[in-house]
Amino acid sequence: MSFTSQIQAVAYCRTPYKQKFGIPRQPGLVEARGYVELAREFNHIDAVRGLEQYSHLWLLFCFHENLAQGWKTTVRPPRLGGNEKMGVFATRSTFRPNGIGQSVVKLHGIVKHKGKVCLEISGMDLLDGTPIVDIKPYIPFSDAIDGAVGGIAQEAPELIEVEFSQQALTQTAKYSMREHSPDLEPLIRAVLAQDPRPAYKKAKEDPKLYQVALYDLDIFWKMQDGKAQVLELVPGKIQSQ
Ligand code: SAM
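A: This is the predicted complex of the input protein with S-adenosylmethionine.
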């Protein structure tokens, strides 16, 4: 059965995450700051009147970077090391029939910036430029469920230690002076503590040089002694969308 209603972006999410690799796998794991910018047709302060009374929001969004790859009935969740299959509807896979994701984020405030209504948020797990298809207040009495069972994802993932080289520390201090990336050091620490490597690559010693793109920077790091070692920060090629 098909709908007559058309889904369109009501907003776009602006985040420090410029590529999929390194984005936390669920919201609330990393306190990155970002904002939701209402799209032109919905850019009225009246559309969010009353939302400031809530501490958290549901964002419904489109996994727009994965749409072209379609979906399969079963997926291999990273939690299971990428070895076992589960039904697509039993997972939070980003490859879904309608490509819809949902995340709870913290709402810090509502501002008007350069004529655009913006919701200041944190804790999102979204790529910069992600189209938001709906925004709803989080309602604790109904949305938070005591004693809920979380299947293969009952516990938050374990964290790993993160260390900086002297060079990376100096560079991080320099780039943190900029107005748009004041939280750079805690952000790098929190992102790498999640160990963004694929599930099938979790060796404590790993010769590969990895890179995550945060703000306008490429952060180079590798795994040594079970710790993420930040080596260098380099101005990145990926810019904000
Ligand atoms: N909390 C949401 C949910 O459960 O529907 C998303 C969970 S999904 C596992 C989170 C991952 O989606 C991130 O780690 C990132 O790799 C990916 N992602 C985020 N934004 C995306 C986008 N716009 N297009 C494709 N993938 C995206």
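The mean pLDDT is 95. Residues 11-143 form a domain with the Elongation Factor Tu (Ef-tu); domain 3 fold (CATH 2.40.30.70).
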